[in-house]
Amino acid sequence: MRSVTCFCVALLLNAFAGMAQWQVVNCRRLVDGKGGVIEQATIVVRDNVIHAVGKSGEVTVPKGAVVHDLNQFTVLPGLIDAHTHLSYAWDHMPGTTPWESLERIMSNPMVLFYSTRNAARTLESGVTCVRDLGSYEKLDTDLKQLILRGEVAGPRMFIAGNGLHVSFDPYLPINFRDFGKADGVEEVIRATRQQIMTGVDWIKMYGSTGSGNDVSGHQTYTLEEMQAACSIAHQHGLRIAIHAYGGEAARMAVQAGANSLEHAVDLDDATLAEMVRKGVYYVPTVDHNRYYADHAAVYGYSKQEVIQLKEFILRNVETLRRAHEAGVKIVMGSDAVFTGFGENARELEWFIEAGMTTQEAIRSATSMGAELLGRGADLGNIAPGYLADIIAVEGNPLEDIQALTRRVRWVMKDGRVFVDKRTKLR
């Protein structure tokens, strides 16, 4: 009799587990990822997918649904940060800089532990999805799995594993130099295939110098080597991001077949036109150099290095302005490392500085980012059929982008609320 009872209880539990979990989000304003705005909106979520969207009072609300009252806030799709390094972690030990800590002090388990804090801060900033462009020893894979299993809070991750780099790049962290190293076409082909075998979502290639306080941008890979990496990536259905600080390396990357161009400055008109023709995405990562300059003491950077960082920012913004005017697809990427997580969306303030409208800036961090990832059908928008990645901000980002970049108050990812900082507004 007991076994029959247990069997019946198990059936009931399975039945309840199969029932849809309904949630309703009521908000003052909805700004979707495609330019649409609905005042006094209601969003209905079933499990982890958006079921219905519309004006409040015009959408059927399922009986017994959990209701989230966001009537004082503007709601948007969860942000997509297309350039992060979540496994660049620092333990804040006295007397160390972040780079020293990563290279010489922390073991891999410690790096992974502190990486979970980076992931949590990123999610708290309203970023529900990242493209993580470079790690080592599969730390990004481990972090991605911990997030997928619900062991730690963090954004949805699209990872690139070890970035391909030449053996003589002195600016890469010591821990990274034995991973992804490839010189010459044959080694590039081998290293690209090796990355694909590990299950990465993207291929990353360092086509120039440039990192931290180094803004030199000297080209490292030849056109033929870049073409080899692009060809193998595309042959296996993957996209490739090429790091290129300088204009010449960027021109080669676009010619070679890169899907996205990271950091580049001083792009000439012909390269911009080619990017438009080929649909190459530009991820300018302006704000990370602002962050380095503002925290120069933490990173151990000199006054002269701060001047160089600020000079690079001016070139970066000017290139962004020209790219926008030319019609290049622009995507938000913070290039956040170490202590930069939580300020991911500050990049959008530079987009406004460069002449983009607030709507264009928002799209760069939502639907355009999803398009870059090949996930335009289920990420980066608030509409039926999209995953329930939803954030709420204090204020109206259409009038003041800082409402989005600095005042995120509520975050839902995949139908689960991770952040709730609502307060009664005056």
Structure description:
Helix 4 (139-148) links the parallel strand 6 and strand 7. This protein is α/β, with parallel strands linked by helices and 426 residues long. 37% of the residues lie in helices and 21% in strands. Mean pLDDT is 92; it is low at 1-18. It has 2 domains: 2-77 and 381-420, Urease, subunit C, domain 1; 79-372, Alpha-Beta Barrel (TIM Barrel), CATH 3.20.20.140. The protein has a 7-stranded mixed sheet. The chain has a 5-stranded parallel sheet with strand order 8-9-10-11-12.
How would you describe this structure in keywords?
single chain, 2 domains, five-stranded parallel beta sheet, seven-stranded mixed beta sheet, TIM Barrel, 426 residues, globular, alpha/beta
Task: Outline the fold blueprint.
Elements: H1 2-18, E1 22-31, E2 37-46, E3 49-55, E4 66-77, E5 79-84, H2 98-105, H3 108-124, E6 127-132, H4 139-148, E7 156-159, H5 185-197, E8 202-206, H6 223-235, E9 239-243, H7 247-256, E10 260-262, H8 269-278, E11 281-283, H9 287-294, H10 296-299, H11 303-326, E12 329-330, H12 347-353, H13 358-364, H14 367-372, E13 390-393, H15 402-406, E14 408-413, E15 416-420
Parallel strand pairs: 1-4, 5-6, 6-7, 8-9, 9-10, 10-11, 11-12
Antiparallel strand pairs: 1-2, 2-3, 4-13, 13-14, 14-15
Helix pairs in contact: 3-4, 5-6, 6-7, 7-8, 9-11, 12-13
